[in-house]
């Protein structure tokens, strides 16, 4: 009886400690027309417009312009310099190289962010590197710490093919940079800029966690899948993680990755007309601002319930009270 009582108290305390999850309201949705490779994998509001990147394109960004309910993608091309050695093991690099030749997208750009100076940052999953595209001048791969990959792998991240860095966030001053590892184990790393180099202050790894969870009920799956991060954003001195399987956004402390609050978009994303015939989520891109959230869907060419097979961008309203003040 004492053991049972203790267990009940412990579970109740654990449940109470879990951050509340509230639903987000969908304002608009926009099919994206004109992305050459499809597979929208990153979003960022840079300057006066919304920009996107595809993990199938190594040489372009897309400016997204509203037009009759759609977003038209206008390409801005670039030529990336020779990529540096990331420190990833030979086996992972070779599998990424083969996949790039088969499907397109040798760089496998999986996230996009920008700072207040107009610099745009792309994270390459295949090469665990960050490409900086300035508003004027030459492109460059950031000088990331040599120990970054080693520390991440020692914490259980970046061990599996196609499960490497999936999201990026930069603060407006361009002085702090976070990367999100996708799954098995998912996690967060942080670096600080010192002149032209980036350093780990007190260690690169903020968070590393494993575990499995069930998809939301509308997906009607009883098979637990690995917890994941598929996108990352920085707003108002907070980090926001896009959690694809769980169909939610979580606000986290930028100093240690601790989760503070979460908001679900499952009710809106998993209606019959918006649902894809997949046992997991398809949301891969995130941008947060005062008025709401932009979420990009990388559908991989799959058609959803209503037959739409183009990439989708959703605009959700900010929660009541705002992203940073909601209680």
How would you describe what is shown here?
Keywords: Signal. This is Esterase-like activity of phytase. It comes from Pseudomonas indica. By secondary structure, the chain is mainly beta. The chain has a single domain, classed as Neuraminidase (6 Propeller). The protein contains 4 helices and 24 strands. It has an 8-stranded mixed sheet with strand order 3-4-5-6-2-24-23-22, with no helix packed on it. A hairpin with a 2-residue loop joins strand 3 and strand 4. The longest helix is centred in the first third of the chain and has 16 residues. It is globular and about 45 Å long. It starts with a helix and ends in a 10-residue tail after the last strand. The relative contact order is 0.16. The N terminus is likely disordered.
């Amino acid at each position: 009886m004492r053991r049972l009582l203790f267990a009940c108290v412990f579970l109740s305390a654990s449940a109470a400690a879990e951050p509340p999850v509230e639903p987000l309201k969908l304002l608009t949705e926009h099919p994206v027309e004109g992305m050459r490779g499809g597979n929208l994998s990153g979003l960022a509001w840079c300057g006066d417009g919304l920009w996107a990147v595809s993990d199938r394109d190594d040489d372009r960004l897309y400016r997204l312009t509203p037009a009759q309910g759609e977003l038209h993608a206008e390409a801005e091309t670039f030529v990336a310099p020779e990529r540096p050695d990331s420190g990833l093991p030979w086996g992972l690099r070779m599998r990424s190289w083969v996949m790039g030749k088969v499907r397109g997208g040798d760089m496998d750009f999986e996230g996009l962010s920008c700072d207040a100076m107009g610099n745009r940052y792309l994270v390459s999953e295949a090469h665990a590197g960050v490409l900086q595209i300035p508003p004027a001048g030459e492109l460059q791969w950031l000088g990331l710490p040599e120990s970054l990959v080693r520390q991440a792998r020692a914490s259980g991240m970046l061990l599996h093919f196609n499960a490497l860095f999936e999201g990026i966030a930069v603060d407006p001053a361009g002085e702090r940079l976070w990367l999100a590892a996708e799954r098995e184990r998912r996690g967060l790393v942080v670096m600080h800029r010192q002149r032209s180099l980036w350093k780990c202050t007190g260690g690169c790894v903020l968070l590393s966690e494993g575990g499995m969870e069930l998809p939301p009920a509308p997906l009607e799956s009883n098979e637990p899948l690995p917890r994941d991060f598929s996108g990352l954003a920085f707003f108002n001195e907070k980090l926001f993680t896009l959690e694809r399987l769980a169909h939610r956004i979580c606000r986290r402390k930028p100093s240690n990755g601790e989760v503070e609050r979460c908001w679900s978009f499952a009710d809106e994303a998993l209606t019959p007309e918006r649902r894809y015939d997949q046992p997991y989520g398809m949301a891969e891109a995130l941008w947060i601002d005062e008025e709401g959230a932009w979420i990009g869907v990388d559908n991989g060419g799959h058609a959803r319930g209503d037959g739409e097979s183009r990439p989708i961008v959703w605009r959700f309203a900010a929660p009541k009270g705002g992203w940073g003040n909601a209680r």
